[in-house]
Structure formats: structure tokens, C-alpha cells
TrEMBL record:
Protein name: Steroid 21-hydroxylase
Gene Ontology MF terms: heme binding; iron ion binding; lipid binding; steroid 21-monooxygenase activity
UniProt KW Iron keyword: yes
Keywords: Endoplasmic reticulum, Heme, Iron, Lipid-binding, Membrane, Metal-binding, Microsome, Monooxygenase, Oxidoreductase, Transmembrane, Transmembrane helix
Enzyme class label: oxidoreductase
EC annotation from Swiss-Prot or TrEMBL: 1.14.14.16
Residue numbers binding heme: C439
Length: 494
């Protein structure tokens, strides 16, 4: 029999194409009654339609396909949740089914075993670490009024810095980050650092933002979707290693110092000392130095960048909305006066100020999209989802839903106030997520936001530098939604 090479080649090609298309169809619809979503090309999925501010793009998908829809990132299938109903059903009503975290190439670069608090899978190890960390931090006053003085101490340092740098354009981001980081330092190492004097501290703290930016970059996501690209991502991989490595070395040095000076007879004075004691008492191998290091890494990453970026946004919104700034200052003057700094107990008497902070958190939606994964095969709003399904909850879509918040792009604190000026309760608000993986630092973050924000505004006003256009209110999305670099003129109120 004579075999025609041309026919064989065509047959092989046709077979390969059919296989690729079949695999694509299988990946596109892994189970029956799977959530709908845009069709795309085999191999590329719907990537050609992708837009970099994904939170807005995902909202558009929600408008077209509903609150539960699917999306193909190359060959990777993701379910996207938009709107309060689907996100609440997943994170709260069916909390256990949606409590896992997905695996990601960027995470393997700094946390290959998925340890710690944020990236960890939903299992007993995560539960033990989260439970012990939360209980111990609460014991040291984390999120309680007894911790207020530690925060106020840092507010006072920030005020000193503002006084020394007023009446000229300045970039305040690093200084805010350092003040906020010192709060986590107090609770984990029992020590604060001088912002100007300690180069190791400065290096470690200022790299947190670089770490978030590099780890959240679209380029590294591409490495996750198309593994063959990994050898070409040396620059981005190096940036993650460098930034995370600096923070890691700083934290390991703190742990080593504590190990050297550990005195078994003394009561632990901070989180590291408590954890080291727990390792000694633990007979089942549940606690180790490796877990300790990752837990502290997570506390610094999740607890520093988030609060400091929110406060940086707060300054940006105040300088661009002088009417709101004035209203807040007027309320603080009436309730507290300018002679002393506001305390957390004042917040009940400052509804406009509270409403401004809520509106800020709504409009920036600091962590716009939170990654979750299913722990088992489950259903959501009538659709079937397989186990280990990557699910992204678009919190931004709640906070920018025009039905819940008319004219969502408008910054208007009054939407959080009743007609009589009292604070309005709002069930459709979740900047800290919800359910089993809800932010562990929510109570601390709320206290920090109130004390820093009111401390800054009771003493200073913020303005756009003369002769320059208003800074952009559009941010850049990495893990968090960050403002673009900007300068502000700080003026002491007299
Ligand atoms: C304005 C400040 C903050 C915001 C907006 C914020 C927001 C969030 C969000 C949206 C999540 C994910 C929730 C989910 O997956 O459903 C999260 C998780 C987390 N946050 Fe925060 N956070 C803030 C401050 C803090 C602080 C101060 C700490 C600790 C000191 C902290 C520690 C954590 C931890 C450990 C997790 C992981 C929880 C887990 O997966 O079990 N956060 N945060």
C-alpha cells in the first residue's frame, strides 16, 4: 500500500486540532450546568478580551452573564462572582465549600509550601496557625482598646513628620507605611524602630509594596497560565525573590534574636516569644519555626500595606475633596477640639467622619478581587462547580453596584448617613471579605484607620501643590488597589 505523506500530515494536523478543541471544550465546561461565560480560543481562552483593571472588566462580565460566571485564562478556568447575592451565598452561606485558596505561580516563589495565614489551603494546619495567632495577638491587645496607646504613639510620630515637612510638596507613602509597620513590630517583636535611623527596618518595610506589585503583576499571572513562559520571566521572578527575601531576612533576624535571649521562666512579652514557647510545649509537631516565619510574613504583608495604602488614599481624597475635608475637621473640632488627639471612643460621636472612612473604603475597595477555591463539588445560585475550582470574589462589584450605591464613582460620605445625620447601617459592604477567610486584622485595621485619619485631619489640612493638576484618582491593581505616586502639601491648622 502506498502511503501519501500529504494525506498523513493532514490527518495528523486535523487530529491534533480536534484534540486541542476537545480538551478546550472539556476545560471550558468541566461539569454539567457550569456557569456561563465568554467563549474564547483554544489555548488562549478569552485572554484577548482581557483588560488590566480586571475588577471593572469582571463587572461587565457580570452584567452580561450574571452574578456567577466563568472565564478562561488560557487553559485555566476561573469562576467569577459579582454582586452581593452570589458573593454572600459563597463566602457566608456556603462558607466551608468556598474556603480554600487557589495555587498560584507567584505564591510558589515566596511560599512554595503554602504555609501561613493567607495563602494556606483550608485545612487543619491553617486552622491551628490562624487560631493560635489570633488568640495570642488578642492576648496582647490586638484590636482592643487597651492597644490604642500603641497606635496613638505612631500617630504622634506621623504628626511630627508632617510638621517637619509642611508647606512643600512631599510624597508621604513610605512614612505612613513605616508608622503602620511599627504597630505590627510592637505586637510581634515588642519593639518599634526609628524610621530614620534603622536601615534594615527601612529596607524591609519599603519592600512590602514592591513585593505586592511584583507578585500581583500580570506578567507572573501569565507564567501561571502558560508554564512554558516561566524561563522568560527571570526579571519578575527576581523582583519577587528580592522583595520578599529582604522582608524574610529582617524577620528571621528578629526570630534569631529572640531565640538567643529566650528565658524559659519569663512570661512571653510578644508574639514571637509566645510562639517559641508554643513550639517547646507542642508534642505533635503542629508548630515550627517555618510556620512562625510565614505567619509573621503574612502579618506584615497583610497588616501593613493594606492599612497604609488606605491611609494614603485617604490623604489623596481629602486633598481632592476639600469640602469633605472641611466637614470632617469641623466635626472633630466640635467633638474633640484641637488640643488633644481624638480617641477611639469618640467615633460614636463623629458620624460624618465615620461615614467618610466607610465611603473611602467603598470607593477604593482596597482588595478588589479575593481569590478563593472550592473545597468540594458544590452548587452556587443553581450552577454546578467542581471541587478545586478557582473562584474570584469581586468585592469591587458590590461597592460599585449602582443599584446599591447610585453614581458609584462619586465620593460622597453622605450615602452612609441617615437623614438625621446618624450613621446608616449597610449590609452590602465588605471591604474585609466575609466568612471563614474573613480578614484576621479587621478590628485592628478599623482602629488604625480611625485613629490615624482623625489624628491627621485634626492637626493638618492637605492640598494639591500649587500649579499642578489634581492627582489621578485611578489606581493601579496588584494584590491591592494602589494610588499612583503623588505629592501633597501639608499645612498645620492654626
Ligand atoms: C484596611 C485594612 C485591611 C483590609 C481592607 C483588609 C482586607 C482583607 C481581605 C479582603 C482579606 C481576604 C478575605 C477573604 O478571602 O475573603 C483579608 C485577609 C487577611 N487579612 Fe486583612 N485587611 C486589612 C488589614 C489587615 C490587618 C491590619 C491584618 C493583620 C495585622 C490583616 C490580616 C489578614 C490576614 C492574616 C488575612 C488572611 C485570612 C485567611 O486567609 O484566613 N489584614 N484582608
Amino acid at each position: 500500500m502506498v502511503v501519501d505523506i500529504g494525506t498523513v500530515t493532514v490527518a495528523i494536523l486535523a487530529g491534533s486540532v480536534a484534540l486541542v478543541v476537545l480538551r478546550y471544550i472539556q476545560a471550558r465546561k468541566p461539569v454539567s450546568n457550569y456557569p456561563p461565560g465568554p467563549w474564547g480560543l483554544p489555548f488562549l481562552g478569552s485572554l484577548l478580551q482581557f483588560q488590566t483593571d480586571h475588577q471593572r472588566y469582571f463587572m461587565k462580565l457580570g452584567d452580561k452573564y450574571g452574578g456567577v460566571c466563568s472565564y478562561m485564562f488560557g487553559g485555566k478556568n476561573v469562576v467569577i462572582l459579582n454582586g452581593i447575592e452570589s458573593i454572600k451565598e459563597a463566602l457566608v452561606t456556603k462558607g466551608n465549600d468556598f474556603a480554600d485558596r487557589p495555587e498560584n505561580y507567584a505564591v510558589t516563589l515566596y511560599n512554595p509550601q503554602y504555609l501561613g495565614l493567607f495563602d494556606a489551603h483550608f485545612n487543619e494546619t491553617w486552622y491551628n496557625q490562624r487560631h493560635f495567632t489570633h488568640k495570642t495577638l488578642r492576648g496582647f491587645g490586638f484590636g482592643k482598646t487597651s492597644f490604642e496607646s500603641k497606635i496613638v504613639e505612631e500617630v504622634e510620630f506621623l504628626i511630627e513628620y508632617f510638621k517637619a515637612n509642611q508647606n512643600k510638596p512631599v510624597d508621604i507613602r513610605n512614612f505612613i507605611t513605616n508608622c503602620v509597620a511599627n504597630i505590627i513590630c510592637s505586637i510581634t517583636f515588642g519593639q518599634r524602630y526609628d524610621h530614620f535611623e534603622d536601615p534594615a527596618f527601612l529596607r524591609a518595610m519599603n519592600c512590602i509594596r514592591d513585593w505586592f506589585t511584583a507578585a500581583g503583576s500580570l506578567t507572573l499571572q501569565m507564567g501561571h497560565i502558560f508554564p512554558f513562559l516561566k524561563p522568560f520571566l527571570g526579571k519578575q521572578v527576581g523582583a519577587v525573590h528580592e522583595a520578599a527575601g529582604k522582608l524574610e531576612s529582617f524577620l528571621l533576624a528578629q526570630i534569631a534574636k529572640k531565640q538567643d535571649s529566650a528565658d524559659a521562666t519569663e512570661e512571653p512579652r510578644d508574639f514571637i516569644e509566645s510562639y517559641l514557647q508554643q513550639i517547646k510545649e507542642d508534642k505533635e509537631g503542629k508548630f515550627s519555626l517555618l510556620y512562625l516565619k510565614q505567619n509573621i510574613m503574612d502579618l506584615f504583608a497583610a497588616g501593613t500595606e493594606t492599612t497604609s495604602t488606605s491611609l494614603t488614599w485617604a490623604v489623596l481624597y481629602m486633598m481632592t475633596h476639600p469640602d469633605v475635608q472641611e466637614n470632617v475637621q469641623k466635626e472633630l473640632d466640635e467633638v474633640v477640639g484641637r488640643e488633644k488627639l481624638p480617641s477611639y471612643s469618640n467615633r460614636g460621636d463623629c458620624p460624618y467622619t465615620e461615614a467618610t472612612l466607610l465611603e473611602l473604603q467603598r470607593i477604593i475597595s482596597l482588595v478588589p478581587v479575593v481569590p478563593h477555591a472550592t473545597t468540594c463539588a458544590t452548587t452556587l445560585r443553581g450552577y454546578n462547580l467542581p471541587a478545586n475550582c478557582e473562584v474570584w470574589a469581586n468585592l469591587w462589584s458590590i461597592h460599585h453596584d449602582p443599584k446599591l450605591y447610585p453614581q458609584p464613582e462619586k465620593f460622597d460620605p453622605r450615602r452612609f448617613l441617615n437623614e438625621d445625620g446618624s450613621l446608616k447601617k449597610n449590609e452590602s459592604f465588605m471591604p474585609f471579605g466575609a466568612g471563614r477567610r474573613v480578614c484576621m486584622g479587621e478590628s485592628l485595621a478599623k482602629m488604625e484607620l480611625f485613629l490615624f485619619f482623625t489624628g491627621m485631619l485634626s492637626q493638618f489640612s492637605f492640598a494639591i501643590p500649587e500649579g499642578t493638576p489634581p492627582p489621578s484618582l485611578e489606581g493601579d491593581l496588584s494584590v491591592t488597589y494602589m494610588p499612583k505616586p503623588f505629592e501633597v502639601v501639608i499645612r498645620e491648622r492654626i
